[in-house]
Amino acid sequence: MKTKGELRLRSKAKNEGSVESEILESLGNFTDALEKGEVTKRYTCRQITLDLEPTLYDPDLVRKTRGLLGVSQTLFARFLGVSPKTVKSWEQGFNSPHTIACRFMDEIRRTPQFWQDRLKAMSVSRQANKKDAAR
Fold first, then answer.
1. Global confidence as pTM
2. Does domain 59-124 have CATH number 1.10.260?
């Protein structure tokens, strides 16, 4: 159902033949499609889905993922935001990583070079820490 103002704008726009009229006509068509639930039929609409189902990590896959980064269990744990005991229990098969840790390890496995570079960028040598403490 069109309002009087909307009809007036459309008739004014049709008479002017300007960019304004094209915009108003397009908006009117889009409004009509929304009201009738026909947006996806009349317009190109892209729907994106994400495959976020995490891999199930067994002890061997956790070790291999850590190996991609070339770090100790302790550094890997700090990087993932868990305790070293947690990583050790994953690698020994006592516990399984939670979903969020699995998603993070999936990302590491997809682009290991990126995460290696991130680790390097965050690394501070012990020598540098000692120099800063001495100042």
1. 0.61
2. yes
